[in-house]
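Input chain follows. Return C-alpha cells only.
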Amino acid sequence: MSVARAPVVAVVPAYDDGASVRAVVDAVAAHVDRVIVVDDGSGDDTPARLAGSVAEHIRLPRNRGKGRRCAGACRGRGRSAPGAAVTLDADGQHPPTCLPAMLAAHAAAPDTIVIGARDPGAGAAPRHRRAANRVADFFLSWATGRRLHDTQSGFRVYPARAFELAVAIPAEGFVYESELLMAWVESGMGVCYAPVPPVYAGLARASHYRPVADTARITVRVATRLLRRGLAPVRLALALGAARPRASASRGPGAPPERPGPPH
C-alpha cells in the first residue's frame, strides 16, 4: 500500500510582477498542492492579475523586501502544514519545469534544503552577477565550514523542519535567505543541489537584486559573524577544501546531500 506524501506548498514572493506572476502561478500549480503569493506592497497590477487564480494572495501593506515576503508566507501557511515548501520568484527566472527534479531530490533527501543551482559557466548570467555570486558563496562557505554553491539562488525546496528557523530570522531583503541557509547548516542539517538553467534574458522586469549593494550587505553580515568567532580558520580551511570533514567531501550541483563539518 502506498503512503500518501505530505503536501507541498509553493511560496512565490512578488513585487511589481504583474506581467509575469499569473503565468508563474499557473505553471507552478501543476506540480504542488498549494500556491501562496506574498505580494510585497506592489504598486502595479499584480493583485488584479492574481484574481481568479488558484493562488492564495497575501498582500503586505508596504514594501519590506524579500525576507519579509518569505517570512510572511511561513507565518501565513496555517491551513495545513506542508511537508515541504518550494520558493521561486514571480519574475520567471526560476523555470517551474525544473520542479519535478527538485522535488525528486527532496524526496531522496527529505531533511535537506534543495538549492536549484545554476551553472556558473553557462554564460547566461551577466559577468557582474557571476562575480557577486562567487563572493557571496565564498563568505557563506567560510562561515559554515562547507563548500556551498549558488547561495543566492532563491529557487529552493525547504523541508518542514526549516519553517521554525524561517520565522525566527530577523534579517530583511536578500540577506534573509543567506541567514536562513547559515542557520540551517549550523543546526547540523544538510544541503543538496539540483541543476537548473540560468534565466536572465527575456524577463518581464529587471531583477530587484543589486549585485554590489546586496552582496555587500550579505558580506558585512557574514564577516561580523566571523569576527565574533575569531575568523574561524578551520571553517575557512574546510570551505576551501584544504581539509575535509570525515563524513563527506565537498560536492557540487546534482550531488547527494552534504553534512556540516565540526563547529569551530
